[in-house]
Amino acid sequence: MTVLKLENLHKSFGETQALAGVSFEVGKGEIVAVLGPSGCGKSTLLAVIAGLETPEAGRVLWDGEDLASVPPHKRGFGLMFQDYALFPHMDVAANVAFGLEMAGMGDTAVARRVKAVLELVGLPDFAGRDVNNLSGGEQQRVALARSLAPEPRLLMLDEPLGSLDRTLRERLLLELKAILKRARQTTLYVTHDQEEAFALADRVVVMRAGTVAQVGTPQAIYRQPASLFVARFLGFTNLLPGVVRQKGGRAMVETAIGAWPVEGELQGEVTVLLRPDAVRLGAGSGAKLTGTLTAVTFRGNSSQAKVEVGGVELQFEFLANQRLPEVGENIQVSFDPQEALRIYPRED
Amino acid sequence: MKFTPRWRTAILWVLPLAFLALFYFYPLGNVLAISFGRNEMGAAGAFLEALTSASVRGVVGFTFWQAALSTLLTLAVGLPGAYLLARFEFRGKSLLRALTGIPFVMPTLVVAAAFNALLGPRGWVNLGLMALFDLSSPPLEFTNTFGAILVAHVFYNTTIVLRMVGDFWSHLDPRLEGAARTLGANRWDTLRRVTLPLLLPAIAAAALLVFIFDFTSFGVILVLGGPQFATMEVEIYYQTVSLFNLPLAAVLSVIQLACTLGMTAIYTRLTARLSKPLTLRPQKVTQRRLYSWRSKLLAGALIAALLLLFTAPLAALAARSVTRLEPDRGQRTVEEGGLTLDFYRELSVNRRSSLFFAPPTMAIATSLGYAGATVLLALALGLPAAWALARNRNAFNRLIDPILMLPLGTSAVTLGLGFIVALDSPPLDLRASPLLIPLAHTLVAFPFVVRSLTPALQSIQPRLRQAAAVLGASPGQVIRRVELPLVGRALLVAATFAFTISLGEFGATALIARPEYPTIPIAIYRFLSQPGGLNFGQALALSTILMVVTGAGMLAIERLRIAEVGEF
């Protein structure tokens, strides 16, 4: 059931167009990640939804009600800021209690709720601590507790793990997901990190320069990037120039290293994406490629292999338990063209 | 060889400390001795006597009362302005910021003359009203009122609030306010619970500084307040110059000194707390443009009000100094009205051939001479002190740093009184020395000089020094070839500070200047206290000259100061 609906939002700051027609929906209890490079308008989007910025055009609807005339403090949305924006003149408990007090909750009820929320985020003994002396991870949990405490109907998180180190990030990410799912919290999660978005979200909205580039489940977006931009943003590097021609009633894409059948309407010059994870080691069924293994990067549970095929360098990922040839030797791989290939109109 | 750097630092300290000992602590010690001495009721007797006297209590009470009221008014005007400058981006903002800084650096006598030119009995407003309604006497009573003191103080000190609170505010993360809003706080709750508590240290520090300035205000109250309003500062002056009651003056000085030093100590602690671990953000992200017509209208009105407050009196001064608008003596109407340079021309004429009368052009020459001497003295003393401070932060330097700032917390009139009581008899009889006034001015300028030189000297990275040494430069060559060129701009800034401070200094000078050698401010004061349109015109002409010179000096300082050093 859709609760939040964004319709064609526009917002600019002087010359910069931060939002240029953003539309998507969020369902009740759903975690939606907004994914995009920095400067694509993600933070502005949250500020507009929260009511901190006024859009020049477009509407923010909640349960079908237009929120244009509802000021931020009456929207019942929570926003957890990048770098947390904890009130430095209040201790942990006072920070968490702030939203509850604003809602007019009684003292004993506030105290009970603060205690419960601090327990939920794993900081049961932190009530009296000075927020300025907390570690990054602790600040993050306090900020989360503060935005969760008033039980917002929508929780928005702006790069909440952005400034933390990698191990802490991975641990908090899992905890965060558990907390949000337990609370059945409708959540909008902004990040530039695809791993975060994929790990956390039910659906992902990829943004580009103030517009929505793709909406879908993490799997769908990864398997079928809707555009060259999304493919590049996801870090895919096997992008080859090619030409689509009709041959015997079938569309074939011809590249420097082979020609494969493709589906779709595209004709003429295209860019071909060969997804590395859809490529298997050895001569299996489907299309085959033979090249020289030029480098192997060990990544723990997987290995990244660089393979030169007909003068083109490709990258593949293989599970670490698969035996690779020595660097410099020949290597054969195979893939299902329907699964592994995507074609896009040629840029530049 | 291990102790040579320490010895070098010690040598740097010799001159500045000897100067302070001789011309700050020795005179103040004399003031203390006078106030505690000669009383049958014991050491505290003089104070008890003074404080039980109704007139002294009245003076002390009025000093606090006018300072408190002035401070409140200054905050009322300054805080909205600080908000505007901190949170919004608009065209002409840097110009507005620069304009708001002008009053603060103007000598008190210029300000007093400026308000006279605008609102005094011969000022634009009264002349205009008289012409408009055909009145025979000025309808608006401004000079010699309590209101005049308050307005002048607001004019003077609003920029402190704008700068101190505004700067802090402009770096305050607006997301804190956003967080409060999304947590359900309305605008008022956000202001009350988040913004104001966070700004409080900055507001308190600014308020305290404004209070200290209002508390020790001298020229404004002497000239604009007239005889019926006396703060401690003015009373010390009267007791010294008119009544020769040095013991009472000394007692008042000590009371005032205790108050200002106490407040300065609190102020220092407050500013130290300003560095609380707040997430300060670059201004770029905290400021926005004015979007809605309502905010544009409000901002426009505020900007107009600030512009009026800051420029109207000074503009009135300059314009009035070249305009003849009132009838000459014995005439009902203005015979030759309009633009005139008469007031400037009269500056070199001795009309009354009075003995103590010095032509104002001579006052200008005297002032320039004193200012030059002050620059030399202040740099000669301030440079080694700043150098020693910048070299290391050892315990000795940390102890001495606040001591160097003491003259800043001591009122100028008290310094003048100290000079009078201490330097008039052997071993130090400087009564007739032309150095007396430059020495006093140096004392006032010294903290500014040290404060503007030290950061520049500190900014020289030890790497540069080491690099030069590795390349074969001797310590002397390092100073001459690397450090001095780098400090050049800071030296210019410090010199300009010393120069403009000396030109405008009034409090100490009023007590120690010899009547036949008045400085520009003294000459202005004399003209303002004498009747007649010609005297008034000359006061304005001299004030305008002083205003232009001071303004140019401060402009040079703003230009030369190395950008953003010391900012967040």
Concise synopsis of the structure shown:
The complex is a heterodimer of chains A (348) and B (568). With 348 residues, chain A is an alpha+beta fold.
CATH-level-2 architecture of the largest domain in chain A: 3-Layer(aba) Sandwich
Tell me which protein chains meet in the greatest interface and how many residues each side has.
Answer: A-B, 31 and 24 residues
Number of helices of chain A: 9
The radius of gyration over CA of chain B amounts to 25 Å
Instruction: Compute the number of structural domains of chain A.
Output: 2
User: What fold name goes in the CATH topology slot of the largest domain in chain A?
Assistant: Rossmann fold
Main sheet of chain A, how many strands, which sense, barrel? 6 strands, mixed
> Which blocks of ≥5 consecutive residues of chain A have pLDDT under 50?
none
Radius of gyration of chain A: 24 Å
CATH-scheme architecture of one domain in chain B: Orthogonal Bundle
Summarize the structure in words.
The complex is a heterodimer of chains A (348) and B (568). Chain A has helices at residues 42-50, 92-102, 107-120, 136-148, 166-182, 194-200, 218-223, 228-233, 337-340, and strands at residues 2-13, 16-27, 31-35, 57-62, 65-66, 77-80, 154-158, 187-191, 203-208, 211-216, 239-247, 250-255, 258-261, 268-274, 279-281, 287-298, 302-309, 312-319, 330-335, 341-345. Chain A is of the alpha+beta class and 348 residues long. Chain A has 2 domains: 2-233, 3-Layer(aba) Sandwich (Rossmann fold), CATH 3.40.50; 239-345, Nucleic acid-binding proteins (OB fold (Dihydrolipoamide Acetyltransferase, E2P)), CATH 2.40.50.140. Chain A has a 6-stranded mixed beta sheet, with helices on both faces. In chain A, a hairpin with a 3-residue loop joins β16 and β17. Chain A is elongated, with a radius of gyration of 24 Å. In chain B, α1 (4-36) packs across α12 (246-273), α1 (4-36) packs across α18 and α7 (146-170) packs across α9 (187-215). With 568 residues, chain B is mainly α. The radius of gyration of chain B is 25 Å and the shape is globular. Chain B has a domain at 1-28 and 339-568: MetI-like fold. In chain B, 73% of the residues lie in helices and 2% in strands. The model of chain B is unreliable at 563-568 (pLDDT under 50). The chains are: A alpha+beta (348), B mainly alpha (568). Chains A and B meet through β6 and α2 of A and α8, α9 and β2 of B.
